[in-house]
UniProtKB/TrEMBL annotation:
InterPro entries: DUF4470 (IPR027974), TF_DEAF-1 (IPR024119), Znf_MYND (IPR002893). This is MYND-type domain-containing protein. It comes from the Eukaryota. It comes from Lepraria finkii. Residues 1194-1237 form the MYND-type domain.
Length: 1239
């Protein structure tokens, strides 16, 4: 699929690209993500709306990182379609009922209207083929259309008001956040009545529908060319290769016929345009050219050989392709689970508007309790104030304002990760299980590693510390979710670019947790002022690197030009981030911000640095971060020769005013007449500039934080008074209407007063490589769309606040109350943590933990020379023992550190101890090797930080008797090893080389053996395994594998097994069983001490992730406050709560199994993958070999048989990777293939 649209939250722009995973998109004028912009982005020509009604990444379980017993408050930003909610219901099926409260936010009301209508259909009718048709088909048969019409007629009167809706049969489950959302959704439901049109109206509607579909097809041709659209491969993971033949053809079929069915009868009956995919009579639309109804499902079940009776095993349908049958079966099962949940423990809330504005409004409500004065606009392209006036947000309402799950979809592609985290992370509960997810789909970097290095505008570990979040996969370099196929596929498609279209995609998903160590909050980090300033300055340079011409011209390629033209940030974004940081660190802020401003003011590398300085000063002033003298009253006009009027006459002139510019519609032709394919993503801004007659030095200031809307202006009060107000009655027809475009921005009063009448104000396009190419010829060098003077009262309005608002936007960001806790203190000691920063790079190089002794007896002991010992007890904890039998104290760090490289400072007279600990580097493979899947006790049950929970009974079971169909498993499981690990392993196998000592590599080898031997793909098939440490007691762990399942949401496989850790207390009870077991063939997995310890570290996570039983109140995890309980030889790593709770079908033909089953517990064992954005998954020189995995036919012509009549294809003799049907095809392809062919 072509590159997904990257939606600016920085500077208003015109947007004509795709929105990917967040379901819907407009070609819009997009506004910035700052305190004042409210992300303004009116649509550019509504007949070019790109609508993405269905998701294009497979569904995920939203509660997979919460304990089984914990209620879930979920916030979905850019929620998209229903797939994640339905799949979450299915995944929770059969488990303990939890209260699930989901708040859905999407800027596109059409998405919410579709979703709510679907939910009501499921409630009323369960599942039927008609419901599938209504939600996924472009064209409907009469029966499906009639059902849609009946349901719409039912919902429309119920939605007359929030009160009437909430009183309806659907109102308990489906809640509306505010009246504005309800009005938009209701208007869309009303448009579905187009099914009742007749005559000219019907003909006109059908014509516009077909025109929109044809425009989408034209876009497909433009973006995909002659290559195949293969983005669906990730939906078929981990069995992606066979899907490369089917999914492009099914995509073509859907766009040719508008239905998923292959039955000619169904196709011929489905001829009526589906209103769920269209606009209203007034609107025109283009369905997004990448829309594919199958991509939200887990399509691997279509290619897997499943056992009889397996969950999600399709019985087959002669009229449906196996992929479509698999998707429809999942939809049916998901709907059934949802309908069951809807009757008891589920609430879903809906808000239509901008995600960042919604988050900041929730922050305001949580801080102040006020829901009316947040002063944010609803979205990017209206001047409607965002007011959550639904009853659930009243003072006695029950809508959550904080959440333990926040999923941001791939909004970071559109608004930038910094804006997302600043807005959303304060809403994340301060709990050990709370989780925030970010997702990227747009490929704007070379690889995943480069993406992570770029995503936070600076050094990834340093910036994540400032955010107070731990990206857990990064620090553990371990995951039970496979991303290697994505990484592999990206490399292979580059090699095979002649065969496949350029997808422009690179999918990654990051899991963020709160800083927590051993269930105790980590102290807030202290900084020296200048050191923090240098971090912020390097961040500033990275955030605005598009303005660095030296960097741009040092590497001019397509990717660089694109990244320099599609921007996410402006100075308002920077100021919001600085406010966020100020509230979360301990520092002399005045000192730090003064050093930072000095560095920025003296910068000479950013071309537009000085032009944006006044906007930076303005944003810092409004957020109470820094105020330059010119922003302090009194403000005086410079000329006394004229009678005071306008702003000059105000009695009380504020430091900042709003300027609203009315742009005549005729001036917009410079934008509207540009063909859509050439439009790109131009960024809009406003400019204040001195007149040509200005007596002093000429000046110019650019303001990127702008808000746009169409409408008619009404004013109140006198222009000579600060009570002057501007109100706007918006034009609902937007770009298709006749009203002027209204552009508002805030500016410093002192700048305006330099020439309050003669200075020029302009609205135009910011210069980027792309926009300059498109607009400079037509608009001139300055690229101004409209220009006038401040004295033009017909088109320029100056007010205290923005139109329709009563104040400046609220930005809260929480934290503070003395930074929550900047020092941990008890009667004996106080601990603090301080950052050590490299001033040149702006990176944190080490963390300094300090222990101040408070108790006199310990002070005396330290002064008298008591020995001090430091021991690392966990990745984030260093313990300090004072004296041989003295007390032990803990230094808690926010990230893993390396004690082996640390230095201690002991101040015996001053009574403190410091440990300077470098941060661990997850890429070097050393660090803390056992930190893979950390777990913590909690009141809700054990929390797993890095391994998704599974409902094993819902997962499909693979048929291991069909070896041919299971061959893909060998490659999949072998990709657990990173390139570095694979190199170390191969080196250790060379003659005369010592055995591999890396515990992780050895563990992965052992897991590989489990999967290969159970499946029978390598070695003798086995079901019983023993983890054997021959030098220390023999077998320590027994594993009894029941079956091999597909873990669909995590794109991998899982062994459904029982585990029996053998410990000293249990051995006497199991002696009869163990004696009988010695005579049975047991697959022995050899493990040394380090690997055995790693097994014991991970077993509790394997147990907990699939648990269907409850922990007892006396659970040892709680009483001992640690998981695992022990990793020592002869000790049990897990609690006893789950012993003997195996499902009834867990039956093994073993002597005295009845004895063993009393102590065994169920586990879900997954492959353990290294993380592609931490280190390479495989070497570049292996690409030709990997290409062979995707070459399912002749590389040149695609035939799957050789021309000589044989069944097999010929392989390239040089690389043995690619195949040909004949010598002629090989010769014809050699000029291309030789570029990558290697011996």
């Amino acid at each position: 699929m072509p590159k997904a649209e990257q939606k600016l939250s920085s500077t208003a722009r015109i947007n004509s690209r795709q929105r990917s995973n967040t379901s819907s998109i407009h070609s819009t004028l997009v506004g910035p993500a700052s305190r004042f912009s409210r992300h303004a982005s009116p649509n550019i020509r509504q007949y070019y709306i790109l609508f993405y009604p269905t998701g294009n990444t497979p569904a995920v379980c939203l509660t997979q990182d919460l304990p089984r017993e914990q209620d879930a408050n979920v916030l979905l930003l850019g929620c998209g379609d229903v797939r994640n909610i339905l799949f979450t219901s299915y995944s929770n099926n059969g488990s303990k009922s939890r209260q699930l409260d989901i708040t859905c936010c999407d800027h596109e009301a059409r998405v919410l209207a579709r979703n709510i209508l679907l939910f009501t259909l499921i409630i009323d009718y369960g599942d039927s083929s008609n419901i599938w048709n209504i939600f996924y088909h472009l064209y409907l048969d009469n029966e499906s259309l009639e059902l849609l019409y009946i349901q719409t007629q039912k919902l429309y009167p119920l939605s007359a008001s929030i009160q009437s809706w909430h009183s309806s049969k659907y109102g308990r489950l489906l809640r509306i956040c505010d009246q504005g959302t309800l009005l938009r959704v209701r208007r869309i439901w009303d448009s579905y009545g187009s099914s009742d049109l007749s005559g000219e109206d019907e003909a006109s509607y059908n014509k516009r529908f077909e025109s929109g579909i044809q425009s989408a097809r034209d876009m497909q041709a433009h973006h995909f060319g002659h290559g195949m659209n293969i983005t669906g491969f990730r939906s078929a993971a981990p069995i992606s290769i066979p899907s490369l033949k089917d999914l492009p053809e099914l995509f073509r079929h859907f766009w040719e016929h508008g239905v998923t069915s292959g039955d000619r009868g169904s196709i011929s009956k489905s001829r009526i345009p589906n209103p769920m995919f269209a606009g209203s009579l007034e609107d025109a639309f283009i369905l997004h050219y990448g829309t594919d109804p199958l991509l939200g499902f887990h399509l691997a079940t279509a290619y897997a050989s499943l056992t009889s009776g397996s969950p999600l095993a399709s019985s087959g349908n002669l009229h449906l392709h196996k992929v479509v049958a698999a998707a429809r079966l999942q939809f049916r099962k998901w709907c059934a689970s949802f309908r069951n949940d809807a009757q008891k423990n589920l609430t879903i809330r809906f808000f239509a508007g901008d995600a960042l504005a919604f988050c900041h409004t929730l922050q305001h409500m949580h801080t102040t309790g006020d829901r009316f004065q947040s002063n944010w606009y609803r979205d990017q392209y209206h001047l409607e104030a965002l007011i959550l006036d639904g009853e659930d947000y009243a003072s006695n309402g029950n809508a959550p304002l904080l959440f333990n799950v926040i999923d941001t979809s791939n909004l970071l592609d559109h608004v930038g990760a910094i804006n997302i985290l600043v807005a959303a992370s304060p809403l994340l509960e301060n709990s050990i299980s709370a989780t925030l997810y970010t997702e990227a789909l747009v490929k704007n970097q070379e690889d995943l590693k480069a993406l992570v290095d770029d995503i936070l505008c600076g050094h990834f570990p340093t910036l994540s510390i400032l955010f107070g979040l731990m990206p857990i996969e990064y620090w553990t370099n371990s995951t039970a979710t496979s991303g290697v196929e994505e990484h592999l596929f990206d490399n292979v498609t580059r090699t095979m670019a002649d065969r496949f279209s350029n997808t422009g995609q690179m999918h990654s998903r990051l899991t963020w947790k709160r800083f927590v160590a051993e269930s105790t909050a980590v102290p807030v980090i202290r900084f020296d002022g200048p050191e923090l300033a240098h971090i912020l300055y390097q961040f500033y340079l990275k955030m605005f690197q598009n303005e660095d011409m030296t960097q741009l011209f040092s590497k001019i390629d397509r990717q660089t030009i694109h990244n320099s033209s599609v921007l996410h940030y402006h100075r308002g974004s920077l100021a919001s981030f600085l406010r966020f940081v100020k509230k979360r660190v301990v520092v002399d802020w005045d000192e730090s911000v003064n050093v930072f401003i000095g560095l920025v003011e003296n910068n000479s590398t950013l071309l537009m640095n000085r032009n944006y300085m006044q906007e930076l000063y303005l944003q810092l002033h409004l957020l109470d971060l820094y105020t330059v003298p010119t922003f302090r009253p009194p403000f005086k006009h410079t000329s006394h020769s004229q009678a005071l009027k306008g702003l000059s006459a105000w009695k009380e002139i504020p430091a900042v005013i709003c300027i609203t510019l009315k742009v005549p519609r005729a001036q917009l032709r410079a934008i509207t007449e540009v063909p859509l394919k050439k439009l790109g993503t131009p960024i809009l801004h406003c400019v204040l500039q001195s007149s040509s007659n200005h007596p002093g030095r000429q000046w110019q200031n650019i303001f990127a934080v702008v808000q746009l809307a169409f409408g008619d202006v009404t004013t109140s009060g006198s222009r000579c008074d600060d009570g002057f107000r501007v109100s706007v009655s918006e034009d609902v027809h937007s770009w298709n209407g006749h009203s002027s475009l209204l552009v508002s921005f805030v500016a410093p009063s002192w700048v305006v007063l330099l020439e309050p009448h003669a200075a020029t104000v302009a609205f135009g396009v910011q210069s980027t490589p792309q926009s300059s190419h498109t607009f400079m010829n037509s608009l001139g060098f300055d690229m101004d769309i409209y220009k006038t003077t401040l004295g033009n009262e017909e088109n320029v309005y100056m007010t205290k606040y923005r139109p329709n608002l009563s104040g400046h936007a609220s930005v809260c960001n929480f934290e503070e109350p003395s930074k929550m806790t900047n020092k941990h203190t008890n009667e004996e000691v106080a601990t603090t943590v301080k950052a050590s920063v490299d001033l040149k790079t702006g990176q944190i190089t080490a963390l300094i933990g300090r222990l101040d002794i408070l108790l006199e007896s310990i002070k005396s002991s330290l002064r008298n020379g008591a020995p001090v010992e430091t021991v690392q007890t966990s990745p984030c904890t260093i313990s300090i023992a004072i004296g041989k039998v003295g007390p032990k104290f803990h230094l808690l760090f926010p990230v893993p550190v390396q004690r082996s490289r640390s230095k201690s400072r002991i101040a015996r007279k001053s009574s403190y101890i410091e440990v300077v600990a470098p941060m661990a580097d997850p890429r070097d493979g050393r660090g803390y090797p056992h930190f893979m899947y950390p777990m913590f006790p909690s009141k809700h049950g054990p929390v797993i930080w890095n391994m998704p929970r599974l409902n094993l009974d819902c997962l499909p079971i693979l048929d291991t008797s069909k070896k041919k169909e299971l061959e893909w498993l060998t490659t999949h499981v072998s990709l657990m090893l990173s390139s570095r690990e694979r190199h170390l392993r191969e080196k250790s196998m060379e003659p005369g080389t010592a055995k591999q000592k890396d515990a992780r590599i050895n563990l992965k080898d052992s897991l590989f053996s489990l999967f290969m031997h159970f499946s029978g793909l390598q070695g003798q098939q086995a079901r019983v395994f023993g983890v054997n440490n021959p030098g220390h007691g023999g077998v320590h762990i027994l594993v009894f594998v029941s079956c091999l399942r597909l873990d669909l949401a995590n794109h991998t496989v899982v062994l459904d097994a029982a585990i029996l850790p053998l410990h000293d207390h249990l051995m006497p009870k199991l002696r009869p069983f163990l004696e009988k077991l010695t005579g049975i063939r047991l697959c022995s997995v050899i493990a040394d001490n380090d690997e055995l310890r790693l097994w014991k570290e991970i077993i509790p996570a394997w147990v907990e992730r699939c648990r269907q039983w409850e922990h007892r109140p006396s659970c040892a995890y709680l009483s001992k406050s640690k998981i695992p309980l022990s990793v020592e030889l002869g000790q049990n790593p897990i609690c006893s709560c789950g012993e003997g709770t195996l499902p009834p079908r867990y039956s093994f033909d073993l002597p005295r199994w009845d004895l063993a089953v009393k102590y065994a517990v169920r586990v879900a064992i997954s492959p353990s993958f290294s993380v592609p954005f931490v280190e390479q998954s495989f070497e570049g020189n292996k690409i030709p070999e990997l290409v062979a995995l995707y070459e399912t036919g002749c590389r040149l012509c695609g035939k799957d048989k050789s021309d000589d009549g044989g069944k097999g294809l010929l392989r390239c003799a040089r690389c043995q990777a690619v195949r040909y049907c004949s010598v002629e095809c090989q010769r014809a392809d050699w000029q291309e293939h030789k570029k990558v062919c290697k011996k």
